[in-house]
Amino acid sequence: MENVSIKDIAKLSGVSVATVSRVINNNGRFSEETGKKVRDIIESTGYRTNRIAKSLRTQKTQSIGIVVPDITNFFFSNVVQKIEKHFFDIGYSTIICNTDRDPKKEKTYLKMLESKMVDGLVIISGVKKFEPTDIGISLIPIVYIDREPNDSVNSIFISSDHYQAAYTATSHLIRQGCKHPVLLLYDRASSSSEKRLSGFLDALKENHIFSSLEENIFTFPSSFDFVNLDKEDESFRNFLTKEQKIDGIFAVNDLLGVYALDVLRKEGKKVPADVKIIGFDNTPYSRFTTPKLSSIEQNIQEIATLACDSLKQLMENNYIKTEAKRLVPVKLIIRESSQTNK
């Protein structure tokens, strides 16, 4: 059989994926009969014979893989750099895979990392929830950053508190007098986008501001490249200018905030007098705009440290000593672009 996954082994054996994992790793509870049955199925299907031939992952490769959707992104690149440095300092090599937000490219990279028998994985962000058993990597310790897994076995999920970030930013805009704030984001399918959308809408609701997905949300496609944009996105310009009532913007990254600032300036709008703006990530861009851009700051160092410590625990012990989900607090950095009432 080709492309056999651990799910297939479980189905053919009549047991759960977790039981197959225990048999392959030779730990946990399972009967001798079950163990023999699963091993026979593995042998007959040729499931990952390269891994089994190498003592079922008892040999360490002193390497980890990092899968990132966009290495040019300020937050992603900084997290990757800190994780890579930490593991290099303790003798690990790191394979960094940039997927360009392409699911097929991501799957190809993951299969490559699995075949290289990396000791652990860091999966950063992504559009859909991650399903490790789909490609047969459920035995590898995984740390997820900003991407919730469907299967939390042998893994930990670490994320900034995106709900609180959006709620805090939106509440600040409302306190500054905004009656019709809007949210700029990318594909809504990612877990971080879902949380930010919820925080944004809850802040509006608590302040008795009517909202609709059409009037209060503008979604850019994940492939949108405003850095190399030849001309303005007409639909976005229309969104900002067709309704004179838009008076506040929360953008899911600073570049979107800077882009909005530029479009508004060309349309004769003044920031913050007419429209107030808050970005996300607190990048250097935020300090060099006119006016300076308010922004949500993520604790990159804490996220990277948590990721490194958690992955080492998983690789050494196959379990995590802390809870399987960690939310890291964020901070609103208030600058000129969002503040008229001091």
TrEMBL record:
Molecular function terms in GO for this entry? DNA-binding transcription factor activity; transcription cis-regulatory region binding
> In the UniProt record, does the keyword Zinc occur?
no
Keywords attached to this Swiss-Prot or TrEMBL record, sorted alphabetically, are: DNA-binding, Repressor, Transcription, Transcription regulation
Q: In this protein, which residues make up the domain named HTH lacI-type?
A: 4-58
From the Swiss-Prot or TrEMBL record, give the protein name.
Answer: Transcriptional regulator, LacI family
State the organism named in the record: Carnobacterium viridans
